[in-house]
Amino acid sequence: MSLSRNAQLVECVPNFSEGRDAGVISRITEVIETVEGAKLLDIDPGKATNRTVVTFVGHPEAVTEAAFRAIARAAELIDMSQHRGEHPRMGATDVCPLVPISGLTMEETVEWAQRLAERVGRELDFPVYLYEHAATSPERRNLATVREGEYEGLAEKLRRPEWAPDFGPAEFRPGPGATAVGARDFLIAYNVNLNTTSTRRATAVAWDVREKGRVMREGGKPGGKILRDERGKKRWQAGTLPGVKAIGWFIEEYGLAQVSLNITDMRATPVHKVFEEVAGKARARGLRATGSELVGLIPLQAMLDAGRHFLAKQQRSLGVPEDELIKIAVKSMGLDDLAPFDPAQKIIEYQLRDPADDPLVHMDLRAFAAETASESPAPGGGSVAAYAGALGAALATMVANLSSHKRGWDDRWEDFSGWAEKGQALEAELLRLVDEDTHAFNRIGAAFRLPKKTAEEKQARAAAVAEATRGAIDAPFQVMQRSLEAMEVATAMARDGMSSSVSDAGVGALCARAALRGAHLNVLINAAGFDDQEYLAEKLRAAKEMAAEAERLEAEILGIVEERMG
Description:
Four Helix Bundle (Hemerythrin (Met), subunit A); Alpha-Beta Plaits; Formiminotransferase-cyclodeaminase, Chain B, domain 1; 3 domains; alpha+beta
């Protein structure tokens, strides 16, 4: 299925208490794929935890339907009275959180979680608790509190009035146990591998870093008396990482202990900081972090931020391609320590990416040239201009990256890195515009094909044509803007970059100049006959000014290049 980028999208990450029987896991996940509008992204089973984390995404109604079917199937297939595993759990579907991805608020996500929980309790007849943002009381917000006592303590817990479920019967169901349904922010489930088999030592590191920290004891010693406040409650010493939950465990299939972490606020504590902090606390206890493991999916931005962080520590340019940033993040955090790390499978945006949205940039050079040369009117000059601009930005970026680690220029790496980052962003935007120009052309054709028999149809058609034409003007106008900015990067690199690459800066400037002139022609031809004169006047004035500035910059850059080349 293809998911629109502008649609309401919600992610669901149910955790099922089965990680060893592939047949059972398959029978649970296959029902998710029967729901139109829900896309299964990831299935991550763990033998030692005897738990499978499943990730799927889609429109809220489809996702909640798929979640219900999966919870129902798990209740049929999993007998919790026979379940054993390292991870805390209380039900066949232990937890089922909904996460807003785009187009809907947390409040709306809570409403969908409540509907799902109510249906599970009513139709499947076992206890359901709401947690995180969907919680019905502050005490139930924390999942660890809701799950306290686990499956083995569930029967006794259900007898206590304060732990009556939010939906379903307050009765113990031995087979399915209980389920927690929630609405939460994006959570990164992340494990750091240690060179030890000791769960106790891994737990000590977990307590060092988790936000909750550890219980305070007399003298600060492990065996000391627990300290309490004036109300008799335990006193806690906070850990070093806000927005992070953690435990320690031993994973038999790997033969090592891990610190298992949930990063609930990746803005406060990014994944690379978690890895370094765990590694540091482990080192202080005589241990070593040998790598790490991602459970489920991670947002692209988290990986890019990690890549930039580790490059900055090496005083290397941050303006490198996206795949290079991901590669340095994977190697720096040892994400391939236990198994290969496939970005296409582990990064959520890559899972949602549909090559049909931007077919031109996914072509090789020969195919792009052949498509341009074909009898089809698109891609045409607008797309080619955008690609020329991308090449210009790429060449200027190359000079910045080479200059950032030139021997003897160590004190200048940050300046060149800043230019490289700007160039890299311009290249990405111009590549996007390669396809956008063709999409804009196609939208005009589609608008002209609309029916025009009735007065209402004629009015709707005219409005659609006007909107499509506006888009066809805006796309090359943006190419002009970005290409001019690329010329500014090329100017800086021609003037200050390493002398052996000054010709590359010059070629980059010429590519960007050609892109700008070509895009200007497209602005002019697409503006012909457009009725909104006020809009046109402003666009054409700004385009003319950019064209004049590009002409001035071209002369300046070529003068600098020729002078430096001698």
